[in-house]
UniProtKB/TrEMBL annotation:
The chain crosses the membrane at residues 416-438. GO terms for molecular function: calcium ion binding. This is Tenascin-X. It comes from the Eukaryota. Keywords: Disulfide bond, EGF-like domain, Membrane, Repeat, Signal, Transmembrane, Transmembrane helix. The keyword Transmembrane helix applies. Residues 323-363, 364-402 form the EGF-like domain. It comes from Parasteatoda tepidariorum (Common house spider). InterPro entries: ECM_structural_protein, EGF, EGF-like_Ca-bd_dom, EGF-type_Asp/Asn_hydroxyl_site, EGF_Ca-bd_CS, Growth_fac_rcpt_cys_sf, NOTCH1_EGF-like. SUPFAM superfamilies: Growth factor receptor domain.
Length: 442
């Protein structure tokens, strides 16, 4: 079977009125340049789809808040018809196939056997369910009246159930908190566009450009074009993307590769690459793998080959950089009050025991003045360079011990000698006194 196709040019055709393309109240139907043009009877004008529709006027007004313009009613939402006489209501419900109560021909959101009564709002052109008990709202999913509370009365305007889920309509500066399921205060400040609560109850601010959230408020955080800004303790911190470094409010390109970072030189003016351990900067300025062993310096030649050397304080021993002991080899010299200490790659002089560091060098510590180390009876402390000694006082002899443990006892032989001298002195004085007395008596 072959199919034949017929093409007709109706770009400028004139059809009889009984073709009914313009409705029952048309007198002529034309197609001009492919567009349908209807000529209507008196009292009718082309309306929707160019179908001849009865005109609105002073005697035939538009209903339900509709407006008449050029003989055609412009209908508000939820209304339709030539004069907006038909009201169309769609209820939020997943059980529309069941039987519902009707008010003025409208399907109400409550079922016919619901404990709530169906009401009709003339102003809002809507049908709704009203529960008998104050504070309760009809829930379509369970077909019951349930208590619906969104928090303190001053925080919300309406509480309802949609598809079994409680929905709160909050007042200005109040937002529904999914965690607490009530309206709570939420204001991120003048630099915010929106304030809301996350599912776990935290405040989430949508800030204006040049601002970021810190705690529960938007704070200014603007470092300029292409510069990252983050808030730390409420203060803006500026940073640049990868391979860029911040310099006087601008991001300067500095690409060291993924194994290095850009840093300023000691003068703080020029950028340079600081490579990770085992990497060195190549001729392109990128940190490239370069390893010569522990304690060694690896540098890359222009051709990419590596050049190994030992840093100061090390020497090459059989291909390995070995630490030089500057103390043992006499390279590092210290004063008599100091001791030499070797460290990897160098050495330093530290104050010897019994000395302390001052601005003028190492100073002897007078242990006798500060510590009072000689604690036994008959002992005395004598300071010596770098240390101290405990000695027996006059008239005492050492019995044993060392330093702070030194024990001293009185010298008995010395005591006898002292007694004889005292007796002789006394006898001499008495004898001289007698001689003088006898002389003056004569």
């Amino acid at each position: 079977n072959s199919r034949k196709e017929y093409n007709y040019d109706i770009s400028n055709a004139v059809l009889e009125a009984d073709e009914n393309l313009c409705g029952n109240h048309s007198t002529k139907t034309e197609f001009i340049n492919g567009l349908k043009v209807c000529t209507c009877e008196d009292g009718y004008v082309p309306g929707i789809n160019e179908v001849c529709t009865e005109m609105c006027n002073e005697s035939k007004i538009c209903e339900n808040g509709g407006t008449c313009h050029n003989g055609i009613c412009t209908c508000p939402p939820r209304t339709r018809g030539t004069f907006c006489e038909k009201i169309h209501v769609t209820c939020w419900n997943s059980y529309l196939y069941e039987e519902y109560a009707k008010v003025r021909g409208l399907y109400c959101c409550c079922k016919s056997d619901a404990p709530a009564k169906c009401k009709y709002d003339v102003k809002k052109l809507n049908a709704y369910c009203e529960c008998p008990k104050k504070g309760e709202v009809y829930e379509d999913k369970s077909n019951t009246c349930k208590e619906c509370n969104c928090g303190k009365p001053e925080t919300w305007t309406k509480c309802d159930f949609y598809g079994g889920v409680k929905t709160c309509f909050c007042k200005e500066n109040y937002v529904y908190n999914p965690k607490t399921q009530i309206c709570e205060y939420c204001n991120c400040g003048e630099l915010s566009k929106k304030c809301e609560y996350s599912w776990n109850g935290f405040v989430r601010c949508t800030c204006l450009k040049g601002a970021k959230q810190y705690k529960n408020e938007c704070h200014k955080c603007d470092c300029g074009e292409n510069i990252f800004c983050e808030l730390r303790d409420g203060k803006p911190i500026c940073s640049c993307p990868d391979n860029y470094q911040l310099n006087n409010g601008s991001c300067i390109e500095c690409n060291c590769g993924k194994h290095g970072k850009c840093v300023y030189d000691d003068a703080g003016k020029k950028l340079k690459c600081e490579c990770s351990t085992g990497y060195s900067e190549n001729s392109m300025g990128i940190c490239q793998y370069c390893y010569c062993g522990d304690n060694s310096i690896c540098a890359l030649n222009v051709d990419g080959t590596k050049n190994c050397s030992c840093p100061s304080g090390y020497r090459d021993v059989n291909g390995f950089c070995t630490d030089i002991n500057e103390c043992e080899e006499g390279i590092a010299t210290c004063l008599s009050s100091e001791v030499c200490k070797n460290i990897p790659g160098g050495a330093f002089c530290a104050c010897a025991d019994g000395y302390r560091h001052t601005d003028n060098g190492c100073e002897d510590i007078d242990e006798c003045a500060f510590e009072k180390p000689c604690r036994n009876k008959g002992t005395q402390c004598v300071n010596i360079p770098g240390s101290y000694e405990c000695r027996c006082e006059a008239g005492y002899l050492a019995r044993g011990g060392h330093k702070s443990d030194l024990e001293c006892q009185k010298n008995s032989a010395a005591n006898v000698g002292y007694g004889l001298l005292a007796t002789l002195f006394t006898v001499t004085v008495i004898g001289l006194s007698i001689i003088v007395y006898m002389k003056y008596r004569r």
